[in-house]
Amino acid sequence: MRKAVLLTTLMAFMMGALAVSSGFSFLFSSNAALAAEDNNVVVAIDVGHNANHIFDLGSIYDELENWGYTVKNITTFTSEALADVDIVLTFTPYRKANASYEFTTDELNAIKAWFDEGGKAIWVSSDSDYDDVEGKSAARVNVLLDKIGSHIFVEQASVESELNAGAPYRVRPGTYNLDDKYVKDNFYDNFSFSATTFFHGPAPLIGRYDNGTLTQIENNPDFYSQYDVYWVVKATNNDTYKSIIARGSNEGLPYQVHELNEQGDFVMMAVERYAGAKKSSKIVVTGEAIMTDYKNQFNTTDEYDNPSNNYQLVKNTINWMAKVEKKAAGIPGFEMYTVLMALTLVLVPVYIQKRKRTP
Fold it and tell me: CATH homologous superfamily of domain 34-327?
């Protein structure tokens, strides 16, 4: 009996080591989806920074309430204003505004403290650089993304596409991340995959490594393998339709990653989970505020009556943000593999020696 127990233990260790070396780390740790403590999830909409399209947010209020959320406006980010908030929707401060409309240092500190509490989610909507005389449409939101430790950032540029709603800057991204089960399960519920989304005048998204290096994230398995970042929507770029990097009114400003007239399936929407100090907050970044009524973005059809997934995409995204996911603490895969192999190397000779001594 004792031999059987010892042999079973050894087999378990060896199978565990093999599993970890093969990438099946879930045998030893899990990513737990935590239920919210209550159903009263509060969504705060930033109306205090004179954001572009801020007066086009009419429908989202009613729909959030219809989906079961409590909605409030927030004008200045303070610890008091954020005390009861679970989800924040914020936007690029108005492009021609003076510095008083930008996020202040105190606001950024308040957002970071709130975000680091864990179980929080923030959706940062940017805009293209069109008509941005200061060249700060991306910079104004990137400072916030930097503060909360995001690996997703916004390129200071514009995307134009041949797949559009009447003009190249009215982009209809229709490339979805169907190969990723996590994205498919969380963001594409009730989607029509023959339909597109609608981003009116968007900026492309880029990534940033922990060492500060900026990178493209259209086709970058190295980046995605290091961080809990997922692309959700890309601009369509194929033999039928092409998408390019364009520039609005800021020709001459340096690009961060892409180049003028570069062609590609640029990322329009990306998300990050396990963010913040407690690894349980979430980040959503879009190159346009797709939950606004401007040009029928938040609708089932765009302004030219093209079928659109925006309404369902926004609903699915808010529901994903409301679900708290916490990465389980545990021994990283390589270290676990090393420990198991060491134990196996010690215990196997002991077992063999015991067998030799058995009459």
Answer: Class I glutamine amidotransferase (GATase) domain (3.40.50.880)
